[in-house]
Specification:
This protein has about 30 residues and is an all-alpha fold. It is about 95% helix and about 0% strand. It contains 1 helix and no strands.
């Protein structure tokens, strides 16, 4: 169970990173 929660946290963090990139990259491109 402990390994599963660790894996879940890792997946959630990666997912948040992808969302963050998809949100910030267009804004950065517009500024450029």
């Amino acid at each position: 169970m402990r390994e599963f929660s660790y894996y879940a946290v890792k997946v959630i963090l990666q997912h948040n990173m992808i969302i963050h990139l998809t949100i910030t990259l267009p804004n950065w491109a517009n500024k450029w």
